[in-house]
Write a structure and sequence with these properties.
heterodimer, A: about 120 residues, alpha+beta, Arc Repressor Mutant, subunit A, 3-stranded antiparallel β-sheet, 5 helices, 3 strands, about 10% strand, globular, B: about 250 residues, mainly alpha
Amino acid sequence: MVPSDDNKLSNLRRGALEYCVLALLAGPERYGLDIARELTTNGVLMSSEGTLYPLLARLRKAGWVNTSWRESTEGPPRRYYALTTAGATALDEFRCAWTVFRNAVDAVLVSSGGIA
Amino acid sequence: MNQQPHTQHPLVARYLDDLDALLQGIEPVERAEVVEGVREHIEASLDGTDRSDANVIAVLNEIGPATVVAEEAYTGRSSTRWPPAPQRRPPVTSRKWLPATVAGFEAVLLLVAMLMITSTGVVGPSSSTITTAGGRTITTTVVHLDLGKYILYAVTGLIPTFPFWLVMFVLVTATALWTAREKTALIALPFAAMITVTVLPQVGYALTGIHGLHVGAGIALVLIAGGGGCLLWVLVRRATRRSQALAN
């Protein structure tokens, strides 16, 4: 069975998306809507904004992010997410693993003539 | 900690209920975290908008179907408790019949309020003619302002309509098709109409006499038929659309 484009993207996202969220939190802490809007900008990394929240819950449960409430000048108080030390370590490990993985995939695709 | 005001829009409430039901298979703390996260997302997205049905639907579309969010929550779990999508019909109080029924009851109540205007006759002028010993005839016109009698007439007129208001109150309170503010408006509308019909003619009379009485009564009629009617039409149309959205 040949997976559809949606399924291909979904399969590629799996395992990578949570590290993209960690990467977005590597700078200043951010709130959910802000993270979701960035991830859905081109529809590649995330297609439905709501799927961010189960992912954030998992990251918080794993101890990779923590949350705090802050007053907002633009509206109601917001829950902000920040990277923990454990999260930063996990992100660093992923960066290394991703580079190796991407190079390996690229090498295979290039050798088969699919990528210039 | 949750400091956010919760939107009471029926479509949002329905979406969050569905999501919560779909997440029954995961730990309560995580389930609550996901639902609250989505709720906060909706609040933040709607902030600064007029929270119209169109805006709410657009925000919910961006969030994605509750089933997709729930599916993500079950990702990586060995549990096979992923429940099927809830296919339940909307509750009986969230179906199309309800706005139409409430509209009927409200219309009756507004009509009664407008008919009450006829009781302003108790504040009308009366004439008396006196013939003096000298043969002169003196006609005097006296305008009676019997407010107590007027209120008594109004209350007496209202009593038969109480069952209508009571049924309307129960329906409006029970349904999820209106927000709390909209429900308050619907419940208060008949009272506002009664007060308008009672007060405006009196104010008119106090200002300019019998002419003011008639002008006040006319303004009251226009306000009830025009303002009250428009408000009712908007709220009923809104609820009908929501009931259709919930049924889809």
